C-alpha cells in the first residue's frame, strides 16, 4: 500500500512540474508564426489567421512580415493575436 501511494505521489509531483498552457487545458490551439525552417506553425500571419478557429491564439515571432493581413469579420473577436512581446495586437474594431 505504501509503495502504491509513493508511486501515485511521485507521478502527481512530476505532473505538477510540467508546464501546461491555458490553451492546452481548454482545448484551444496556439498557432505560431515565424521564419521558415525554424519550427513555427506558419510562415505568414495571414496563413495563421486563415487556419485559426474560434478561441485560438496566434503568437507571432519578432521580425518583419512583408504582407497585407485581413482578419475576417467573423474572426475579429474569436481569435487572439499576440506579438513577440505578448502584447495583444488590436484588430480594426478596436482601433
Sequence-ordered SSE layout with sheet pairings:
Layout: H1 2-17, H2 22-26, E1 30-33, H3 45-51, E2 57-60, E3 80-82
Parallel strand pairs: 1-2, 2-3
Major sheet attributes:
3 strands, parallel
Query: What strand order characterises the main sheet?
Result: 1-2-3
Report the strand count.
Answer: 3
Mean pLDDT: 76
SS summary, helix count: 3
What is the straight-line distance between the termini? 61 Å
Q: Can you tell me the overall shape?
A: extended
State the helical fraction.
25-40%
**Unreliable residue stretches:** 8-25
In sequence order, what are the helices and strands, one letter per element? HHEHEE
* Strand proportion: 5-15%
Structural class: alpha/beta
Output the radius of gyration.
18 Å
Polypeptide structure, described:
With 95 residues, the chain is α/β, with parallel strands linked by helices. Helix content is 29%, strand content 12%. Strands 1-2-3 form a 3-stranded parallel β-sheet, with helices on one face. Strand 1, helix 3 and strand 2 form a beta-alpha-beta unit. The protein is extended and about 65 Å long. It starts with a helix and ends in a 13-residue tail after the last strand. About 19% of the residues have low confidence.
Amino acid at each position: 500500500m505504501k509503495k502504491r501511494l509513493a508511486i501515485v505521489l511521485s507521478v502527481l509531483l512530476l505532473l505538477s512540474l510540467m508546464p501546461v498552457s491555458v490553451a492546452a487545458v481548454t482545448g484551444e490551439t496556439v498557432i505560431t508564426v515565424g521564419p521558415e525552417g525554424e519550427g513555427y506553425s506558419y510562415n505568414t500571419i495571414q496563413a495563421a489567421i486563415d487556419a485559426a478557429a474560434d478561441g485560438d491564439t496566434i503568437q507571432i515571432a519578432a521580425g518583419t512580415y512583408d504582407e497585407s493581413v485581413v482578419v475576417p469579420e467573423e474572426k475579429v473577436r474569436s481569435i487572439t493575436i499576440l506579438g513577440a512581446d505578448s502584447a495583444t495586437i488590436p484588430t480594426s474594431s478596436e482601433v
